[in-house]
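My current task is to audit a protein record that another person submitted. What it holds is a sequence and that sequence's fold in token form. Thanks in advance; the entry in question is below.
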Amino acid sequence: MPMPAEHATAQLPRETVDAVVIGGGAAGLNGALMLARSRRSVLVIDSGTPRNAPADGVHGLLGLDGTPPAELLRVGREEVRRYGGRIVAGEVTSAVPAQPSADGDLRFTVTLADGGTLRARRLLVATGLRDQLPDVPGLAQHWGHGVVHCPYCHGWEVRDEPIGILAAGPASVHHALLFRQLTDDLVYFTRGTELDEETRARFAARGIRVMDTSVAEIESSEDGITGVRLSDGQVVPRRVIAVATTLLARTDGLAGLRLPMEDLPHGMGRHFAAGPAGRTSVPGVWVAGNAADLMAQVGAAAAAGALAGAHVNADLATADTDAAVAASRRGDTAA
């Protein structure tokens, strides 16, 4: 989908920039903000497909609770630009290490879907993640509204509604206990997953009904979800479906960096492996936000981006100083 003109710069820079940030969400923009405020030349590549786009508002973010996601990002882009940062609409198809500079500093080449290329000294990957929903007919069309995944992101908005939990694995048991805090009318659909007697007893004590019959589809009307149809034809009235999605870091176009990945237990997801401040084992590459921390909410993702941006700047400052010392010594030798 084309992005508004406000998202894009006229052209890619010809010169090598200090840092390219891949991803224009909270983590990427905050990382770029830190770099731009440090007078670094920084460029953000924004695909325009934020994970929280379907949501009505961002929650759990002090001072900005309820802000529409698009508005939060619009303001963030303005702030980055205020300090000289540049933002380009596009999708990365390739990011690879390139020949180092004459003084040995790192270089990367980033290629976009439209064929444009640019060179950078450092990379900050903030691509976010994709939520993979169970393959249940009628489910995906309500994602972000009648279908939710996070009790802290959406729970207040669905309080006191008849909620159904679609089990997706062991994590769904904990999911059910969290959503039980928000409604007295909660049904747990096992969908073939194991549920031991102790868990069933705990559910019964909290008034959580359990349905073992397999789910056929989610039924809805113009007003939203109306119920869950089971394989035996029974329809269980529900207004909201909560499901623990499979969380997958976005890796499109990044294979050439050979960034290490890690799996969450029980098939819950897969993310980039990173150390303190998001530094990866690949020299010159940092990761921040949901691409590295699958559970991070917007505030945590933004904070991780700021920390990673500061560490990228510190690494560049060391490289600049090393180059200056080497140049000075060459001058002394020539004299």
Remarks:
- The chain has two domains: 5-130+246-334, 134-243.
- The first helix runs from residue 26 to 37.
- The mean pLDDT is 93.
